[in-house]
Amino acid sequence: MPDPRAQQLAFDELDTPLYDTTFVIVDLETTGTSPDGDAITEIGAVKVRGGEVLGEFATLVNPGREIPPQVVHITGITHAMVYDAPRIEQVLPGFLEFARGAVLVAHNARFDTAFLKAAALRCDTAWPNPPVLCTVKLARRVLTRDEAPSVRLGMLAQVLGAGTTPTHRALDDARATVDVLHALIGRVGNQGVHSLTELFDYLPGVGAGQRAKRVLASDLPAVPGVYLFRGPGEEVLYIGTAVNLRRRVRNYFTGSETRGRMKEMVALATRVDHVECAHGLEAGVRELRLLVAHAPPYNRRSKFPKKAWWLTLTEEPFPRFAVVRTPTRDALGPFNSRNDATDIGLTVAEQAGLRTCTTRLGRAGVHDCPPAVVGGCPAARVSEIPMDIKEYAPIATAVRDLFSGRSDAVLRAVLAQLETHSRNEHFEAAARLRDRAVAVVRALARTQRLAALARVPELVAAHPDGAGGWEFSVIRHGRLAAAGTARRGIAPMPVVERLVASAETVLPEGFTRPPERPMPLPALDTDAPGSSADAVPPAATLPLADVPPPGQALESVAASGLPTDAMVSAATDAGTAWVDGLPLGGGFPVHGGPPLLGGSPEEIGLTVRWLARPGVRIVRSSAGYWEPVFGAARWLGWAEQAEAAARSELAGAEYLGQLG
Q1: What pTM, to 2 d.p., does this model score?
Q2: Among all residues, which ones are annotated catalytic?
């Protein structure tokens, strides 16, 4: 008779088959019903796989307290029996090792796991949080009331023909639960439940209509991709991504899906379309683009796909901030709400001295807002006498340099003001300014990080697929232009060349392309084991200076390959000069377009996160992938410390409130 394990599986092969799943069936005897006030007196466990017993674990446990007479009457475990037994701190490590890597099964699992977790807490032992299966819940799902009026272990053992009779002793009850488990698994197997995932999905109740639609997932491949639920009129109801299309879509027709909106969507769905993708980044990007194209009603994220706000400098002789939908060259964002953008603008304007008045001023005009003790136009605090356009220009330049990363002078001014508040013991004012400064740093860092990728005409990156191969992405101005894979044994560079040749053309908004000089890279190792070219070289990026934290002197960066401070000033005065395909000056080039060059912030953000994953390597880059030396990224450490201080203050306030 052929081995059933050698036969082709008819279900998702990525799920663990039930016959290949290791279960540890456990039963406890205790001094009572409270995990906090009572203790374990006996542990019994049986390890099984494929219907075979692999081992047993049984021991009495000294609870360290008296056993109530009524409990002695039920279990037969007396104080004399446990007097010389080991304490739980001696027993628990051995049990956890016995159960390691297995699915924990118990009859009324909530009771047993609660006692085990409480014991682990008292022993200062980390709870491994294994998957837990309750035979009470499974029995209620499988058996009718007529067949089993009660789901007590004794009744189930009798109804299902268990070979062991429960005796209220841990090992006997665990052995009886093993027989009950096998009988219940045998019954659900007739309903198409063959894997561990399917078994967990089967536990909650599912309507017949919802379960009947499971056929919609039967033809989907077990690969990464995007799925689209369609309604009776072929309209798109819902869009999602999956590492495994078949498994993910199938879950919508099981009890694991508890969201009311999704159950309503499934009831309307008539079919499921899909798009196979090379890897997770392509799936995520395709999902974002499809959400914009279809705006499906059951995707919350698609309700307002273009409702972001940007903080931008106005194009007028005396610039000021405006909050707009469409970003300009000097913009910061995007923000989810207009208020967030406004708050950031007010903070930057106050520190930089940018005007907030709404008076229209021509090139021949002057700014003459009167100074105010509290509030008022920030520009009036810079100069008490009227300013003409030449005197006002450095203020706007400082803001532009802050946004582009050419200078962080405004942030240093914030730090200086914070120190002044602290020295004067104005702690509440310092805390408010600190929190506002953190918001500015976070917004700047995000925009500069996205813009860093958006300005690169072409970047090819690779990530190991975990099986000796590579996942490739061709990224042009922050947008995914092509995606592919090279499995182990396939030379990667020919795959890269084909992807680049067939990649989507990206036309950025307002970008002046610099002279492209691809950075030299070492050749791929064509003698690596497993393929003729089994490795991708490390990322080739411009070495940045070791930037000190804010408040310390910045050392010369000439040795690192970056321009010196004098060269930065010269480049700023003369405009952007390009050297080896890189802008001279340490900041972003003046290209005339918005920060993201018309790209989607969500898509570029998704791509940036993919590039930041461990193991990603840059195959080649047309103009270098870097962030500005004086950008907000160097302030993120300070921002994290400030946020930790704010959380500590909040916790202290809550504690004092509870005492009061």
Answers
A1: 0.65
A2: 168
